[in-house]
Design a protein that fits this description.
The chain has 504 residues and is of the alpha+beta class. It is built from twelve helices and 22 strands.
Length: 504
């Protein structure tokens, strides 16, 4: 998802090649043995909200997604050190990633992800690669080897890896959220493949991982001993000779976990900076400048950029107490700096440094919504932080609009974006539809050090599309009441379908 763009002040930013054919979505996640996730099976739609009390383990779902993404680019041990873990990022013990209730010699983590992958990607040498099928299932199992020998080497070991196609005729059984077959599914799920891309088999007590030929080439599978692999097989795929595996790797690499920080959001951009918003929120002015000018013909063409700025200003102006009339990016040619500017209803123009944290976070998401090159999975924790309670409904509407509309074809005006958020905020949950909601609960499973260990359960809401496929029961209004503390001036009415908020 790196952007191919021109940094010239006299040219417009170029759109990413082949975006009309890029569809990306994590449709199902299975995790077993990772932190407090045991036998967790969860299906995702375009927009999903995971709601539950603090400390139940909601963030561990994002950690599992992040770990899978890191495994697609890094050796096993490096990925383990990079994933969020017990306080300081990058300083955790790999053992902390395993379920604490397991026997040390038998510690294993198993992951499976079903995903729609882009049909066209580019390899590390710039060559175009076309996937043979766009719906696949990827599985990986990782264990722990205790340090032995004089050098005390040990750590994470690869136990199993597999990647198999999900056939077109079976797609409807795996893509369960409400959607249009003609407009959506047929525009993102296509291709033909029956054989596995990656498989693992036991040979004389050794796990052997094999890469099967792809892209029309023929030949014997390429074997590798899993126990001696420092990284996953998928992470080694860099060329167009294995296009479907490369597309799956690109999909996993694109998964993002936003943690928007006020300092990053307020910073100006140099003309030479990259123009894509980082996970922390850096490069907001440069990103907005690229989005606003992507269709202009020359430096004097203000019509296209004005339309983009106006669209974002309308979004921002809907916030109570903000009153934005205009949004633009100031271009300082002397210092070669971009600065984000917002004009209030009273005519006063303010730089980003003067905006509140909540306003900046909302503005950043509005910019992402307007960016057709921003695709794939976006995870975000507690998106309501810094937002006035009266504006939470606007935030939910923005998050919902940020995700792809499954009733329409994927295109530049309906990019293949997926949004997953977690929250413990009653104010936000009140605006979530039952189809979008997963309730985070916990149950006791085993002990570690004499203390009971709690396992996370993600339970769909009653009468939602997930209900008939749920393996962990369903949640009702009563399951939400323990942590739903209603703000003054609002009250909840319970009906047969969901929660309805009323303001006094």
């Amino acid at each position: 998802m790196l952007l191919a763009e021109s940094h010239s002040a006299t040219q417009c930013s170029a759109a990413l090649r082949g975006t009309a054919r890029r569809a990306e979505m994590l449709t199902r996640l299975e995790v077993d043995g990772f932190k407090n996730l045991l036998d967790l099976n969860v299906e995702f739609g375009p927009f999903t909200c995971i709601a539950g009390e603090n400390g139940v383990g909601k963030s561990n779902v994002f950690d599992a997604i992040e770990f899978l993404s890191l495994l697609s680019s890094n050796p096993l041990m490096e990925a383990a050190h990079m994933v969020r873990s017990a306080g300081e990022r990058g300083s955790g013990d790999p053992l902390d990633l395993f379920w604490r209730g397991s026997v040390q010699e038998q510690r294993r983590m198993r992951f499976a992800a079903e995903m729609i992958i882009p049909a066209e990607v580019h390899d590390d040498f710039g060559r175009e690669a076309r996937a043979s099928i766009t719906f696949i299932r990827y599985e990986v199992e990782v264990g722990y080897e205790r340090p032995t020998g004089r050098d005390k080497s040990g750590g994470l070991v690869l136990l199993r890896e597999a990647m198999t196609p999900i056939r077109i005729g079976q797609a409807h059984r795996h893509l369960r959220f409400p959607h249009s077959k003609k407009n959506f599914r047929d525009s993102v799920v296509f291709g033909r493949r029956a054989a596995a891309f990656i498989s693992t088999e036991d040979r004389d007590g050794e796990a052997v991982i094999e890469i099967h030929q792809d892209g029309g080439s023929r030949g014997r599978p390429k074997p590798a001993l899993a126990a001696h692999a420092p990284a996953t097989v998928l992470s080694t795929i860099t060329g167009a000779d294995n296009p479907t595996m490369l597309a799956a790797r690109r999909e996993m690499q694109s998964w993002r976990r936003l943690a928007l920080e006020p300092t990053a959001l307020r910073a100006a951009d140099r003309y030479s900076d990259r123009r894509r918003l980082t996970a922390a929120g850096r490069h907001l002015p440069g990103t907005l400048h690229r989005v606003a000018n992507r269709h202009c013909q020359n430096a004097a063409d203000n019509s296209a950029s004005g339309e983009a700025y106006a669209r974002i200003a309308v979004r921002l102006g809907a916030l109570s107490g903000v009153g934005a009339r205009h949004v633009r990016v100031d271009e300082n040619d002397t210092n070669e700096l971009f600065t984000l500017m917002v004009t209030e209803l009273n005519g006063i123009e303010l730089p980003a440094q003067a905006l509140s944290e909540g306003t900046l976070r909302f503005l950043a998401l509005a910019v992402l919504e307007s960016d057709p090159d921003e695709r794939g999975l976006i995870c975000m924790e507690e998106p309501e932080n810094g937002i006035h309670p009266g504006n939470v409904s606007e935030m939910v509407d923005l998050l919902r609009d940020l995700a792809v509309d499954p009733d329409l074809p994927v295109a530049d005006d309906n990019p293949a974006r997926q949004v997953i958020v977690n929250t413990h905020s009653p104010a936000l949950v009140q605006h979530i539809d039952p189809d979008e909601l997963l309730v985070a609960m916990s149950s006791v499973r085993g002990e570690a050090g004499g203390m009971p260990e709690r396992v996370l359960r993600l339970v769909p809401f009653a009468n939602s599309w997930r209900e008939k496929h749920s393996e962990s029961g369903v949640a009702t209004h009563l399951d939400l009441l323990p942590f739903l503390t209603i703000a003054r001036g609002a009250q909840i009415s319970l009906d047969d379908y969901g929660l309805e908020t009323q303001t006094a």
